[in-house]
Amino acid sequence: MEGNKLEVSINKQSDLQYVKDYRPQTEGLQHRILLHGPVGAGKSSFINSVQSVVKGTTSKKAGAANISGSSYTRKYTTYRIQKDGQNTFHPLVLNDTMGLECNSNRRKKVYVKDIKQAMKGRVRDGYTFNPECKISKEDPKYNPDPTANDKVHILLCVVDASAVSQMSPKAIETLQDIREEASDLDIPQVAILTKIDLICPEIKKDVKNVYRSKILKKRMEEFSAAVGYPMNSIFPVKNYHEEINFNSDIDSLILSSLRDIIDNLGSS
To answer: Would you kindly state where each structural domain of the chain is located, as residue ranges?
Structure first.
């Protein structure tokens, strides 16, 4: 057991340093990570978890709530990670979006169109999503001339592992449509499965069991088959939620997924 703890600690420190040392090859470029996915998947919680683990202090800047059936996040919001003791930020920024509500074809189409505009960098920070109406060129939050820093560099699909089997055909089709839009824009796509402790008693008992959980592997395979993400582009994560103190095993999963996200950015 002590050996396992030491290995987790070493991996955690290695991944943390990797994230902190990361620099895009293009000077001044910030890599934008766009999070999207069904309502309640844990997008905001993942942002808070990433900020907390990288900074080493608890962060709850991204609003998160247990609201069934509707999205807590309504505004397009950019979150930056401040460097240690400096008034500067890491070159990775995360954008939170409204959760996918698939109760009508209209909402599905509006969601896809807004996410596509965001990927193109045409949605300014603070835009309030309207499930019934996509952003218009007349909207003050519409950006007609996006720069490289405004555009999305990687698409991150966030899905609740415990809800994979219950995803509606509309939700699956919407996630597929967004993947296709991202592919057309040459934007890499990865996915994370959250709330993994809710689907497997062994993971709930010890997060390190994520690496040998047959239940989790099955959920990952189900999601891969349904939406089309390759297995090596799907990363299991447990977000910080009710925990008061940091947990090295939770940290390691978050940092490992963040390192893989960075690797998927390529050499841009």
So the answer is: 28-85+92-262
| Tokens standing for residue 108 | 């599905």
Q: pLDDT, tens digit, for every residue of 237-251?
A: 999 977 778 899 999
Strand locations in the chain, DSSP E? Answer: 31-36, 77-82, 89-96, 154-160, 189-194, 234-236
Give tens-digit pLDDT for 32-77: 999 999 999 999 999 999 999 998 887 666 555 444 445 566 899 9
Q: What is the pLDDT of residue 209?
A: 94
Q: 24 has which bridge partners? A: none
> Distance (Å, rounded) from C-alpha 211 to C-alpha 189?
22
Sign of CA dihedral 229, 48, 266, 34: positive
Cα distances (angstroms) measured from residue 177 to each of 68, 113, 174, 234: 24, 10, 5, 18
* 265 C-beta neighbours (distance < 10 Å), count: 16
Q: Which residues contact 3 (CB under 8 A, 6 or more apart)?
A: none
Kindly give, in sequence order, each residue whose CB lies less than 8 Å from that of residue 179, ignoring residues fewer than 6 positions away. Answer: 155, 157, 189, 227, 228, 229
| Pair of tokens at residue 190 | 């990865």
**Distant-in-sequence contacts of 2-10, Cβ < 8 A, 24+ apart:** 4/208, 5/248, 8/208, 8/248, 8/249, 8/252, 9/248
Residue with tokens 């000077």: 27
- Which residue type does 230 have? P
28-85+92-262 homologous superfamily: P-loop containing nucleotide triphosphate hydrolases (3.40.50.300)
Q: H helices within 28-155, ranges in order?
A: 43-55, 105-119
